[in-house]
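Audit log entry. Action: structure prediction of a protein-small molecule complex. Ligand: S-adenosylmethionine. The ligand was supplied as SMILES and no pocket hint was given, so placement is left entirely to the predictor. Protonation state taken as written. Sequence taken verbatim from the request; no trimming, no tag removal. Recorded inputs:
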Amino acid sequence: MGTSDAIYQPDLALVHHRGFGFHAAACAPGILELLAPVRDRQGLVLELGCGTGLLTTELTAAGHRVIATDASAAMLAVAREVVGDLVQELRQLTLPDDRLPQADAIVAVGHPLSYLPDAQAVDQALIAMAAALRPRGVLAVDICDLEWGRARQGVPYFAGAAKDWAIITRFSMPAADRFVRDITTFLPNPDGSWRRDSEHHENVLVDTSLIPALLRQHGVDAQVRPSFGTETNPPGLRVVVGRKPAR
Ligand SMILES: C[S@@+](CC[C@H](N)C(=O)[O-])C[C@H]1O[C@@H](n2cnc3c(N)ncnc32)[C@H](O)[C@@H]1O
């Protein structure tokens, strides 16, 4: 178990699930289209950083066989409620060191790769994904480019709230390749009072234009694109779509 288990503790996991499902929902149609050939041959989809199962639900509803994984025990606890036995397996898996099961597609949205400590760890995870992908396999992941930080310079915070959650996030950029979020969450207690919790998240920003050459060296033909399909992603979030040729 790596340091990522320390992030997305129970309160932030709930706030993510209640308030931040829009990204997985926006990505789902494009991902389902990319994965249609995998579904048609009843291939196995490995989801990394599945969080609370927001994309997982869309994959299983479309008929995919899915192993859904995440580093955070708290995210997986919500996912267990949400996707239950609709998946082949829910597994705690921390990139980049944990072994990846072989799969016919590997997907990750909400930039789990960007939670790794540095660009070298991101490369290590991408190489592990290339090795785990079976021939004719499809790779579809999103990741924060260096542009993510440039686009948010001078944006000091984000705040959001609904009837059953609230969040205040302060941003900082100690280096051009590091995006830091100090997150405070608020959730209602049964007695009507609100409880507060805090988390510190660090994301590494990488030059995504280097990713296709790395994946090519490991047998995957990949492109970096602005989106999986027709969705509009936040500035600086890039999508890597790859295919491993048939043997
Ligand atoms: C922004 S959330 C996205 C969750 C989900 N995919 C979604 O779109 O709702 C990022 C996820 O990456 C997971 N994560 C962070 N570091 C990770 C690591 N080293 N290995 C695997 N998952 C990780 C977090 O626990 C979290 O669930």
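Audit: result stored. The chain has a mean pLDDT of 97. Residues 2, 4, 7-8, 23-24, 48-51, 54-55, 70-72, 75, 94-95, 109-110, 112, 115-116 surround S-adenosylmethionine (CB under 6 Å).
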